Amino acid sequence: MTDPALPVGFAGLFPEVVPVGAVEEGAPSAVYTVTSGEPIPCQAGRIHRDTVEVTVWSPDKAEAVAIAALITARLDRWAGTLSGETIDGVSVSGAPDDGFDEENQEYARLVRFQVIYRI
User: Fold this and answer.
1) FRET partner for 88 with CA separation of 20 to 30 A, picked from 14, 47, 50, 81?
2) Of 3.40.50.2300, 3.40.190.10, 3.30.2000.30, 3.40.630.30, which CATH number belongs to 13-118?
3) Average pLDDT value over all residues in the chain
4) DSSP secondary structure, 87-119, as one string
């Protein structure tokens, strides 16, 4: 994800886990995970709904919250084509969750999204 509003040094948005060596120590990063999916019956054809979680990690809590807010602003209510798939809509699902990883001394902000697309 490239966005001029993201802080300098933001390592990126990665699927599932941050690859070893991809992030400099102290740099914020984010991961996304598809946590569930289900078909939705409708007359217009086959539609699917996935829940996607995006977790932002940073040594600074305010930075984790700010980056999560930027990602949310870009994804919430987005629709379009991604990797050849028609995305009918993305919406935030519930309130964000916060956490702290003692071992790595990093704060986390998790945001859930519902993604509706045609299959």
Assistant:
1) 14
2) 3.30.2000.30
3) 88
4) EEEEEE-S--EEEEETTTTEEEEEEEEEEEEE-
